[in-house]
């Protein structure tokens, strides 16, 4: 699925620090924890807690954030709709990676078991 160039540019310039509090609020409202959110972020990106905090403090854009990430080899198993797009059909790699993260946070907030979220056999 094609996303617009304007949308892709907007995503690239957005900062992780501006979105992170929304992720945290979303999962905590549903009874999940900051630790579980970090576990999901770590699974997808390879970042540890120190990395996550550094990226927030540096106000890293999502372009910078994902350029430093080591995307999990099973990330391609993340499927479904997020923001009206099928994540597996998004062609722009950066936009797809952000939507992977959005989808994982969504699944966490919806109460899915961690093994399912982390695509463990």
Provide an overview of this structure:
The chain is mainly alpha-helical. It has a single domain, classed as uncharacterized protein sp1917 domain (Helicase, Ruva Protein, domain 3), CATH 1.10.8. It is built from seven helices and two strands. It has a two-stranded antiparallel sheet. Strand 1 and strand 2 form a beta hairpin. The longest helix is centred in the C-terminal third of the chain and has 17 residues. It starts with a helix and ends with a helix. The mean pLDDT is 94.
CA-atom Rg in angstroms: 13 Å
Number of DSSP helical runs: 7
Helix content: 55-70%
The averaged pLDDT comes out at 94
What is the spatial order of strands in the main beta sheet? 1-2
- As for the CATH topology, it is Helicase, Ruva Protein, domain 3
Inertia-based shape: globular
List how many beta strands DSSP finds. Answer: 2
Q: How do the SSEs run, as a string of H and E?
A: HHHHHEEHH
For the largest beta-sheet, the strand count, sense and barrel status come to: 2 strands, antiparallel
What is the structural class?
mainly alpha
For the record, the CATH class is Mainly Alpha
- Just name the CATH architecture: Orthogonal Bundle
What is the total domain count? 1
Q: Note the gap between the termini.
A: 28 Å
**CATH homologous superfamily label:** uncharacterized protein sp1917 domain
Low-confidence stretches: none
What percentage of the residues does DSSP assign to strands (E)? Answer: under 5%
Protein name: DUF2200 domain-containing protein
Organism: Echinicola strongylocentroti
Pfam family, one: DUF2200
